[in-house]
């Protein structure tokens, strides 16, 4: 939509201010009466009389309404005062800052791992350039590495390396040895993603004409390689920022698994204890880190490209070629395995405590039983529904929201940018702290990060549809503008948008499972993948199958997520190419 | 009779601007023009002179930046007013790409019927479509096909039927033959000229082809602004 820029700027300004206000007013927004929870936490002997509650509200500074609460908090922050905890009454500052220090250290370690993994993935692609046989894609290794969500990888590493092999300590933050596993869990998926992006960028840069010209001119390989890498890095540096911000979000799960006193675990603790001042401080520090990362990537891009480039000056990336047969096979296999679990598990009962506790897998109980003696096959199968049905709902709502906001155009730009930069886990933590943990809250958090890409796509599709010659000419046939929208523009827009939404389904399911794993989503005894994994991990030494069963379902979904995204990626780009057939 | 003397289409000091604010640039220099019923005016000029912009404004698909357009002496569109719905049938068009005149998933007949019903309010479209098809020399059977199932020349004749059937006073054709081979192009533009002459329709014909321009009543040469 090419309306005036002023609207976009205004939208960003308004949503920025709204964000600051909301962040400051979080304690006031809390749905559960904070006074009651503070009373319980601090003065267990006191009766929750109205007078006592009112006194506490005044003490917490919640008696002035949202704006007053917000302004008081921000003026405190500007003086370097992060407030004091509702639960312990002590100052928040020192604890939050030391948690940030731990998280930054962990992120640096994870960054090293990520760079190593990315380098390992991109090297073959670079070597292919020299042999003049560029090829798209980064091969199955990159796909497999990206597929694993951090919380799953962390659990697997914990079980295999720390518990079974006993090579490294399973938890804590007491030295380099304790940092290795969390750094791997965080760094490997990030490095896999980064490596795939880079490999793709290298491959597309190699197809640019200057490479051929330089080769013909007899330039040395080292010079050409340096040029290719520089162009490819410039193309990826924007994504790098998002990957780093994603590390911050992934850190919540990893810190929880390895019991590391970082910012992520700090946030989770604050959310579980309803300690909203602590949550505010944690979110503020995380946002600060994200802004710094954003500035750093901006500087890096400037150094690599020499300033922002007006759109259209770089040649568009060449179309993805080659077949996607491997991706189709992967999707088919993962999907049929999931369906198999569903077919055998759904008729069974996931709730009754009918079996021996932690019974091993047998012909009768193919996946074994959990710690309460419930059938794990049934629980995983019903968990598939418990995870996928909310995911389908989220995707459908996101498509609707995307269509509505795409019609509004630039007005939605500010919220979209904020939502884009929010890791789903962070959104989940904040919503759980406000509303209490629930499936609905987790769904809301995942929805919050799902709508922006769909909105961008919807806007492109709407533009494309309204520019189609036959739709442009419909007014000549006396068709009203409303009818053109409803009967011609929307039917051309909704199917591709729904397809795009469905492609995001596995990713949405994984985000939901991650929140369930952290206890921010579905609550026991509901069967939900993330929750099942969290329940199983306590018994991993005695009964590894309790972890294995949900992990298998999650891995299948992860593989599905990446493979599905690999099928015909070019088709859902939503480029507004309308013209004579010969040009398409 | 007043129709003999008063123009069917009046374009008075019309200009067009693309974009807004600092990026705005003029796409059509001030243009004025009168076309009487049955007359045909060829609009010629280089690419970028604003020929298609003039066609779009006359059709009411976009509004002029300045000036106004009158149809039958009554206001049709101005910088602030779109063409009135109840007079929509008075100006019809034949597009450069005939596919633009039809909904791709419908038969040609369905698109034509919809246009005739909406524009005239008459439920029975048979006589109008039959007469228009006769004039455009198009086999009625072909109208049961979809736009992509007929040849370019047939689609352009069908687009002419679609444009003529609602009974317009003005017909705008924007390079209607540029996508056709020379012989088909000749036949299609001949049909277009004869149909409008027969029915007393004012024809605004955008063209690159000097031989087509020659056969029109007059030629209007426009050039890019500034």
Biggest sheet details of chain A? none
Counting H and I runs of at least 4 residues, what is the number of helices of chain B? 7
Number of strands of chain A: 0
Mean pLDDT of chain A: 78
Per DSSP, what share of the residues of chain A sits in E-state strands of 2 or more residues? under 5%
What is the straight-line distance between the termini of chain B? 41 Å
CA-atom Rg of chain B in angstroms: 17 Å
| Count of alpha/pi helices of chain A | 23
Please name the fourth-level CATH homologous superfamily of chain B: P-loop containing nucleotide triphosphate hydrolases
Q: Low-confidence parts of chain B lasting 5 or more residues at pLDDT below 50?
A: none
- The class by helix and strand makeup of chain A works out as mainly alpha
Tell me the series of helices and strands of chain B, N- to C-terminal.
Answer: HEEEHEEEHHHEHEHE
CATH architecture field of the largest domain in chain A: Orthogonal Bundle
**Overall body shape of chain A:** globular
Secondary-structure element series of chain A: HHHHHHHHHHHHHHHHHHHHHHH
Helical percentage of chain A: over 70%
Name the pair of protein chains with the most residues at their interface, and give those residue counts: A-B, 14 and 24 residues
Low-pLDDT stretches of chain A are: 307-322, 569-584
Tell me what portion of residues of chain B adopts beta-strand conformation.
Answer: 15-25%
Q: What is the CA-atom radius of gyration of chain A, in angstroms?
A: 26 Å
Domain ABC transporter (chain B): 9-224
Family (chain B): Belongs to the ABC transporter superfamily.
Protein name (chain B): ABC transporter domain-containing protein
Organism (chain B): Promicromonospora umidemergens
